Amino acid sequence: MDRKNISSGSPWEDIAGYSRAVKVDDHVSVSGTTAFGADGALVGVGDAAEQTAQILKNIAAALNEAGTGLKDVVRVRAYVVRREDMEIVARALGGIFGSIRPANTTVGAAWLADPEMLVEIEVEALIG
């Protein structure tokens, strides 16, 4: 088994004992990802569309480090805090995954780790 752990550098990875992504052979699992930018600040406070765009950038970076990309995603799970943002998030996902058509689950979440987080997304990809 070929395993590679991919870190985002978040202090929460050490606290909670996880990796941003884990590649095992041709399978990549990306942990729940939120809209933090490279500077560590939350992007898009109050704006679910902007947060979703940043999340997808963060996920794409993790997939790239694993040797794959958004085109290889087979499963998406999105957690949305505000009901009124569900369609906004769905349209953002559709803009990226519309022709790829991964399995998708989008659910309402009562809360996320930071009260300003509106969206969290995790994905799985198969390389090749």
Walk me through the structure:
This protein is an alpha+beta fold and 128 residues long. It has a single domain, classed as 2-Layer Sandwich (60s Ribosomal Protein L30, Chain: A), CATH 3.30.1330.40. It contains three helices and six strands; from the N terminus they run βαββαβαββ. Helix 3 links the parallel strand 4 and strand 5. It is globular and about 40 Å long.
In the sheet with the most strands, the strands line up as 1-2-3-6-4-5
Q: In terms of per-residue confidence, which ranges show pLDDT below 50 for 5 or more consecutive residues?
A: none
Envelope shape: globular
Head-to-tail CA distance between termini:
17 Å
Helix and strand composition category = alpha+beta
For this structure, the CATH topology is 60s Ribosomal Protein L30, Chain: A
CATH superfamily descriptor? RutC-like
CATH class: Alpha Beta
